[in-house]
Amino acid sequence: MKILKITILTFVLLFMTACGNKLPFKKQEPLENAALVYIYAPDTVTAGEDTQTYEYSIRINNKRYLERIEDGEYLVFNLKPLTLDLSATRAQVEEHKLTVTLESGKIYYFKIQKQDDGTFTFERIDPSIASKEIAKTGLAGSSVESKENIITEFVNPKDDKKEDVMVKATQPVQQAQPQVSTATPVVVPVAPQAPKRATASKLDEIKEAYQMKKDGVISDEEFQTIKAQILAK
User: Fold this and answer.
1) Is the pTM of this model over 0.90?
2) pLDDT digits over 15-33, tens only?
3) Fewer CB within 10 A of the terminal residue: the chain, N end or C end?
4) What SS3 class is residue 124?
5) Helix (H, G, I), strand (E, B) or coil at 156
6) Euclidean distance between CA atoms 109 and 112, whole angstroms
7) CB neighbours (10 Å) of residue 171?
8) What are phi and psi of 199, to 5 degrees?
């Protein structure tokens, strides 16, 4: 009996260690003028001997998202209400693509399911089923991180703020009556500001670092450190 308790405790500790770096699933609502898309891969045990955890690359209109998803994880995107292609690829060998039409304000679930023969399926799932399955997954990656990317289909919170600024700028502003001053005007020279580094250059640096990771030159941990340093510039 004592041995059984020790075995169970060891299993629980190993499970907690394996899942400790994953943020648990958190339900979200779509941003304004956006459709919320969940992509998840349940952590299933196959009937065969293959217990390997697979990694899947996600593409949106053939543009790859930097973060990969593994079994037992999920990704979430706020996307523009468009007709677009979503695809999942395993080991750059097997790919499944779906063409979907997204509507603003709606939530969509897409499931990656590993099969017994080592292949996988990628399909849209009814919310009543998906909501129960995705609740058992964790967010892909060890933390929530804002990523600069070139996927123009994303809707970001900062886009809403920009729209608010544009709306305010179009409203008429009441100007105060000018006051006549007899003082001699003083001209203060303004030093020119150094131009800010273009965002595109950060993207190029991140791409180069990611390619180095992909080629095996640097580890994933080193890539994450380099990426954080680039974004902090």
Assistant:
1) no
2) 444 444 578 999 999 999 9
3) N
4) strand
5) coil
6) 10
7) 6
8) -60, -30
And the tokens for 95? 């790919």
- What confidence tens digit (pLDDT) does each residue in 76-128 have? 999 999 999 999 999 888 999 999 999 999 999 999 999 988 899 999 999 99
Q: Nearest Cα to 43, choosing from 15, 21, 65, 17?
A: 15
Quick check: 79 and 37 in contact, CB under 8 A?
yes
Residue type (1 letter), 77 = F
Residues in the chain: 233
Q: Which residues contact 23 (CB under 8 A, 6 or more apart)?
A: 138, 139, 143, 144
Burial state string for 11-36 with b = 16 or more CB within 10 A and e = fewer than 16: eeeeeeeeeeebeebeeeebbeebbb
Select the highest-mean-pLDDT range: 123-127, 195-199, 214-218: 123-127
Q: How far is CA 2 from CA 7, 14, 15, 18, in A?
A: 9, 18, 20, 24
Tokens encoding 81: 């209400």
Q: Cα dist. 120→91, 147, 187, 233 in Å?
A: 12, 28, 70, 40
> Coil, strand, or helix at residue 137?
coil
Q: Is residue 96 classed exposed, middle or buried when 0-12, 13-18 and 19+ CB atoms within 10 A define those classes?
A: middle
> 59 and 122 in contact (C-beta within 8 Å)?
no
Round to whole Å and give the CA distance between 224 and 12.
29
